[in-house]
Amino acid sequence: MVHCLIIGAAGMLGSTLARQLLAQRRISGKELSRLTLFDQVSVRLPKAGAAVRVDRETGNFEAPQTASGLVASRPDVIFCLAAVVSGEAERDFDKGYRVNLDATRHLFEAIRKAHEEDGYCPRVVFTSSLAVFGSPLPDIIDDDYALTPRSSYGTQKAICELLLADYSRKGFFDGIGIRLPTICIRPGAPNAAASSFFSAILREPLAGLPATLPVGLSVRHWFASPRAAVGFMIHAAEVNSAALEERRNLTMPGVSATVAEEIEALRRVAGEDAVKLIRHEPDPAIEAIITTWPKAFDAQRALQLGFRPDASFRKIVEAYLEEHAPG
Ligand SMILES: NC(=O)c1ccc[n+]([C@@H]2O[C@H](COP(=O)([O-])OP(=O)(O)OC[C@H]3O[C@@H](n4cnc5c(N)ncnc54)[C@H](O)[C@@H]3O)[C@@H](O)[C@H]2O)c1
User: How much is the average pLDDT of 148-162?
Assistant: First the structure.
């Protein structure tokens, strides 16, 4: 019997993870008996079967007392996803550090106190980001590349990776940090992130709507579908942590694709009419940001540990259509 807690459960990935856990009702070969969904906004999900107890909790992760409340019921697996995204963390320095660093540290401390009380030692899955790597970067980044963040968001994620490794080394919890590729196609409305167009140039034409491409066709980046990302999170909860050999943070495998390859995948899946809805309007500010980002990784460690990426960029588009078919 396993109790999972998702912090940030109303978000794009948190809600997809919750739906998948409720669909499979098992994790680590055991029955999922309880799922606690925490967010600052209410979490909407289809009704679960009676077999799984689902608790929805609303609160502010920033408040120091929140974390001790969340660990009071001693969840076996904690998925720590709540965060403010890169654009917001860059604009609002204080908020970025409060949510992305301080709140995560409060959580780690609450677990440590519980560990000291009764030996509690959950699996903690922390979603890190490629933003821990900043330019200048090689074309392909291997697993031994140093963390070189060049944004507040990337710095906050990098600090949390170190904390996670140290708290795990001390045995306070059993942590694993997974650096997620950029998620594509992100469902819903465009957001303010500089990366938003990577999804918008596919999502909007697939819905018959126009989209703007602010960068050149040769821009290359590293992607995973929401489905693959949920697979990574669940595998991170299940993987034998002894195999991590004390290197607790891993770059997730993904698909490296140029904007031209993205558009070609769209053409193959939805035809030329969909491609014609993309209007190229260069935005030097966005291009300047994007060209400093990682292009591709050689994520050998994660592959050897059984993390599975999407098979191709076309599969990423098809996976989106299976879940969000127009009409
Ligand atoms: N989406 C991506 O491309 C991507 C890539 C790399 C890493 N990540 C990481 O994955 C995680 C999930 O990403 P997502 O795309 O689902 O983000 P999201 O913005 O959709 O979800 C984040 C959730 O955290 C919640 N949250 C934020 N501050 C909170 C607070 N103070 N108290 C309570 N809840 C709070 C939000 O309400 C939101 O529901 C994040 O840690 C993010 O940094 C995402």
Answer: 95
Q: How far apart are CA 152 and CA 86, in angstroms?
A: 8
* CB burial of residue 246 (10 Å; 0-12, 13-18, 19+): exposed
Tell me the pLDDT tens digit for each residue of 102-123: 999 999 999 999 999 999 999 9
Q: Does any ligand 1 atom lie closer than 6 A to the CB of residue 41?
A: yes
Domain spans in the chain, listed from the N-terminal domain onward: 2-180+225-253+297-309
Contact at 8 Å (CB) between 297 and 142? Answer: yes
Q: What is the pLDDT of residues 46-58, one digit of tens each?
A: 776 678 999 999 9
Q: What are the b/e assignments for 266-288, b being 16+ CB within 10 Å?
A: beebbeeebeebbeeeeeeebee
- pLDDT single digits (tens) 18-69: 999 999 999 999 999 999 999 999 988 777 667 899 999 999 999 989 999 9
> Quick one: which atom of ligand 1 is closest to the CA of 14?
16
Distance, CA of 12 to CA of 326 (rounded, Å): 19
d(CA 63, CA 70): 12
In CATH terms, the fold of domain 2-180+225-253+297-309 is Rossmann fold (3.40.50)
With bands split at pLDDT 50, 70 and 90, how would you rate the model's confidence at 189? confident
Average pLDDT over residues 289-305: 94
Cβ of 23 below 6 Å from ligand 1: no
Q: How many Å lie between the centroid of ligand 1 and the Cα of residue 84?
A: 6
Task: Give pLDDT tens digits for 238-249.
Answer: 999 999 998 999
Which of 5, 36, 81 to mutate to test ligand 1, by most ligand atoms within 8 A of the CB atom?
81
Strands 296-297 and 140-141: parallel
Which of 227, 242, 254 has its CA nearest to residue 319?
227
Angle between helices 12-24 and 226-238 (to 10 degrees): 60
